Amino acid sequence: MDSAYSPEQISQYLAHVGLPQSFHPSSSPTLDINYLTTLFVHQITTFPYENLSIHYSPDHAIVLDPQALFHKMVTSNRGRGGYCMEVSILFHHVLRAVGFSPHMTGVRIRPRINNIPQGQTYSGFVHLVNIVALRDDQKYALDVGFGGDGPTFPMPLIPEVVHRNSIGTQEVRYARDFIPNQRFQDESLGAMKNWIYQYRNRPDQDWNSYYAFNDSYEFFEQDFAILSYFLSRSPDQSQTNTVLAIRFLRGFGDGDGKPKVVGKVMMSNADVKQNLTGKTNLVKVCRTEEERVEILRELFGIQLTEEEAGAIKGCRCELKGDEVLN
């Protein structure tokens, strides 16, 4: 299926994320929504969303080569994940190797103030999702790289259908509409509406929009390489100004024996938070790099090498005792 990964690598991946041999292509599993959901949940609960390569690698660079991603996240066995384009491109090639036919598309997001999406303007393309159509022609968006605010399951591309995200009372859905940035909105001339990922934390709240994309337009890995270069190096981007790590926690719920996301731990610069019940609590404020590196190991399972841990020295996001990051 035109995957960058060999059957041997896929066996290694499936073992790494904790899936049995019955999910291996050699066992001819049914490529249905149950398989897709299981694979999705194991992916996001194994590989944390993290942008540490921007801050803790000697060259402060993101590498999107599929083999480099496989070595970083699977072969090295150090608990590493990556930010959206890293984990999503890895997952794209896994999906292809096991028999699905995904394509990737770019995503525009809304800016946040105090972590809440606000305003009418959407960004340029700064994110990606994989799109998969199953044999019944139903399309699903698979977003394994939006961090703690992302969906915890493959979402069907059906407008206005409400889903409960796995943790707490949050609900999510897709709306289908134009976004305010679009000047070309004449559908008779080919203008296309976007799928808009929305959320509300309680049923009595209004829906708020996170991001928008068009599933009919395919992006290539070369497109994301250009976008990633800018996002990981521009001093004005949040990725270069914030150390981020989010790990979803896997468990079993609803009595059906199927794996589900049951919580998450999050790091943003010095602050470490945990959400196990739908309510987010601050559990620690790191003051030094030694504390942060240890928390990454203890709570996120991420083991940085000595060289990586020292690479942040002199950078804007370095923790220096009581000096507070802006």
Automatic annotation (TrEMBL):
InterPro entries: Arylamine_N-AcTrfase, Arylamine_NAT_domain_sf, Papain-like_cys_pep_sf. It comes from the Eukaryota. It holds the Pfam family Acetyltransf_2. GO terms for molecular function: acetyltransferase activity. Gene3D superfamilies: 3.30.2140.20. Belongs to the arylamine N-acetyltransferase family. This is PaNAT1 arylamine N-acetyltransferase encoded by the PaNAT1 protein. The lineage of its organism: Eukaryota, Fungi, Dikarya, Ascomycota, Pezizomycotina.
